[in-house]
């Protein structure tokens, strides 16, 4: 069984996730830690639980989701994976990071690209990659069919959806991604979003105001 641990980091209140199972192997998704105490919270959790991180995988490359990637990558000497379409958006972060008060953004090197349909394996766990652009052009989500959840990034939120007014965003594309990729998952699947609390596919299909 895959366990999901949520951390909320940085001024954007971004959700970082550590996924792990009984083997102790783990993946870190969207590390947004930026303050020393945030890094320490993440590292302490991993140490106390005897986890072995094997990879950093990101849903997309907006600033709030990549602030901690480089440091965490060095800490555990593990690869970093991102969809290729979002690479220019990762490289752009250093050009605007200071506008948000982040004056020493450390750009991580991408070790490999994520592709739709790929199965990410760690320990006894598997995550299927689905391509869900609209909030970001190279946005992906990670689906655990065994444990009925999806790490959805900034696509579908509790009673809301991701922004589409940022560079590369498109509202119609985002709506299409949710309808054809997220809402085709079983209704009991839990959605761990990039911000705010978790929700479920079924609840959002019935109650999300963007789909009434």
Automatic annotation (TrEMBL):
Its cofactor is Zn(2+). Keywords: Hydrolase, Metal-binding, Zinc. InterPro entries: MBL_Glyoxalase_II, Metallo-B-lactamas, RibonucZ/Hydroxyglut_hydro. SMART domains: Lactamase_B. SUPFAM superfamilies: Metallo-hydrolase/oxidoreductase (SSF56281). The keyword Zinc applies. GO terms for molecular function: hydrolase activity; metal ion binding. Residues 13-195 form the Metallo-beta-lactamase domain. PANTHER family: HYDROXYACYLGLUTATHIONE HYDROLASE GLOC (PTHR46233). This is Glyoxylase, beta-lactamase superfamily II.
């Amino acid at each position: 069984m895959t366990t999901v641990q949520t951390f909320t980091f940085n001024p954007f209140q971004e959700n970082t996730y550590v996924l792990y199972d009984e083997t102790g192997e783990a993946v870190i998704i969207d590390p947004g830690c930026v303050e020393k105490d945030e890094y320490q919270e993440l590292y302490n959790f991993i140490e106390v639980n005897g986890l072995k991180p094997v990879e950093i995988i990101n849903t997309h490359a907006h600033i709030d989701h990549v602030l901690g990637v480089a440091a965490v990558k060095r800490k555990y000497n593990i690869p970093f994976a991102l969809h290729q379409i979002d690479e220019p958006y990762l490289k752009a972060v250093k050009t605007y990071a200071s506008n948000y008060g982040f004056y020493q953004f450390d750009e991580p090197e991408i070790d490999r690209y994520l592709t739709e349909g790929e199965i990410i394996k760690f320990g006894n766990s598997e995550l299927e990659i689905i391509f869900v652009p609209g909030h970001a052009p190279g946005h992906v989500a990670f689906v655990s069919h065994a444990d009925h959840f999806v790490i959805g990034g900034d696509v579908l939120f509790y009673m809301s959806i991701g922004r589409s007014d940022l560079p590369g965003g498109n509202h119609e594309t985002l709506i299409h991604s949710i309808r054809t990729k997220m809402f085709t998952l079983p209704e009991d699947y839990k959605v761990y979003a990039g911000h705010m609390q978790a929700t479920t596919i079924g609840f959002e299909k019935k109650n999300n105001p963007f789909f009434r």
